Amino acid sequence: MNESVKKGILPRERVIMSLSHDEVDRVPLDFWAVQETWEKLIKYFGTNDKEKILQRLHIDVRQFQPKYIGKPILKNDDGTYFDAMGVHRRIIKNDYCEYEEYASSPLGYVENINDFASYDRWPDIDNYDFIGLSDIIGDAHKTYYIKMETGGIFELAWALRGYERFMMDMVLNPEIAHYILERITDFWCEFVERSMKNAGSKIDMVYTYDDIGTQNSLLMSKEMWKEFLEPCHKRLNKVIHKYKKTVMYHSCGAIYDIIHELKKLPIDVLNPLQPRAKGMDFNRIKNNYGKELSFHGGIDIQDTLPNGKEEDVREEVRNAIDILGKDGGYILTSAHYIQGDTPVENIVAMYDEAVNFKKNKKGYRKIMGKQKIIIDTDCGSDDAMAIAMALNDPNYEILFFSTVAGNVDVDQATYNTLMTIEYAGTYEPPVYRGCDTALIRNMVFAHETHGMDGMGDIGLKVKNSKPTSGHAVNKIIEALDKHDPGEIEIITLGTLTNIALAIRLAPDTMRKVKRITIMGTAGLGVGNVTPVAEFNIWQDAEAAKIVNDFGVPIMYVGWDACIDEAMLNEEEINRIRNSGELGKFVIDCNTCLMEMNKKRFGEYCLDMADPSAIAAALNHECIKECEKYYCEVDTSFGPSYGGVLVDQYRFSEKEPNAYVCSKLKVDVYKDYIFKTLGA
């Protein structure tokens, strides 16, 4: 018996809850594979019982179809045959499996629309036993989520007519295209009607499909889709929804540009989210459509499953659940039939990883082999974007956030951090309040840049979150003490007061840090608060000096890394803002900075200092220029106070003590921003 059934959690309930965007114990699972893959699984598990194999893989969904009872499907002398839909087919073999391909187009040479009716192999509804469907399902619906499949409309149309000929018909002979599509739609609508009348109480979902995407683009314009295909699927979906069943729609390929139209059909679940197709970015899809749609699929069959190592598969599963499983609305499975060249070990790894994936407060999250990080922040508006990016990078586990005075006072920084975590909507690391003043000098907050509240003064509010008790400095020390050397990285987005105090209180423990990435210094350029100083260092130069001189690995991400071409222009700003609730939040809270830059540069733009540091720390591919230099922090209280001397020409002949990242690969950096923010 399925393990979840033993525990009293029915697979059917798990799927229904997930599709309702409720929290469940784990992500629900489905399975589809070619016959050759089934044969490998039968050999691997030592049983011919497919149901036992599905239970071993913890599959929550079962599929049943009305039985074909029409004329026997016989092969011709040349090995070809006409299938139940009237399509002329032949079997193609490769090293791994057999596939049905099209042998000819039986309606390809019909010229007169009146002659189409005489074709004697149109799909016939009487070729199926709908009365027996309930018996085929049996009692499976009491435990499992049941789906039934209809065939394609567009796909069957061009299979009968020929692909090129049918595409030409949609331009030159639209009446022919409409006739074929409507006749096929009539068949599938009646197919659903009869299935529901005989077994509707046992069926939860109807799976419909039409491939309308290639690897890189749509097969046709949206206008052509709306004229020819939209009416057909609207009509079919209306029948399905009449019986209050879930509609899952399948299309392979690069279909992002038409998801909005598919949503309006309406559909309920989108399959298969082909990961390697152009534009099918999970973050963007989930952020823009995750509240209205659920998703099914997501695990790559083009490369990861057949060619990857087990850990590659497990990582892809974790990533898919992290993103698509956030707040429910996801059934995990392969992005198409699992092919015969896929190692069984990778299939088992895919499902075992999904079952063992633990959930946090929101969605699902299991941290396995991920770099652990602590983010220290004086959370202003650019910190907010950086924090949201980090929370949406599935390759890292944020142990907690420590807050410090800098852009704003520490209480406001704490409030802003909690707010950002809520908007990010992924998982909720603890937030610890830290130092409320610099070590020596009085602080000057950055109200002109970030607003009085640090978030653009646009009235943003925390909903429910509160900081966790305990001082940030103590928590930093405790975390490093509990972990082995090199397990934790620290990323600082504000002043370095917390880190300096931790070093002074527990130097031996702090030496266990793997690296400290600091958003600070003017890099190899000019400052942003004085001609030589960058704000984070200048705000508490004494603390910065303690950290700089401590002797652990340091990478400064300089102010110069986020300016010039690395600045977000107005088009890029709007792309992020229009991507969803999170995108709107991270842009709107930077209103003060945008207005300030409008006065400085004559256009709306954003120099995102903290996001550049997060990008350099978490995605090294973003780094273009990063060299190790001898660095020294000026605490002399003269005009160069808070500046960091970067001895790029080795004048001092002192041993280099810090890496300085002064330039990013702009395209990679911006793509990372867009990806992590779902834009």
TrEMBL record:
**Its Gene Ontology biological processes?**
porphyrin-containing compound biosynthetic process
| Pfam families, per database record | IU_nuc_hydro, URO-D
Single Gene Ontology MF annotation: hydrolase activity, hydrolyzing N-glycosyl compounds
Please report the stretch or stretches of sequence annotated as the Uroporphyrinogen decarboxylase (URO-D) domain: 150-354
Start and end residues of each Inosine/uridine-preferring nucleoside hydrolase domain = 373-670
Q: Which domain of life is it from?
A: Bacteria
Q: Which SUPFAM superfamilies match?
A: Nucleoside hydrolase (SSF53590), UROD/MetE-like (SSF51726)
Name the chain's protein.
Uroporphyrinogen decarboxylase (URO-D) domain-containing protein
Which organism does this sequence originate in? Vallitalea longa
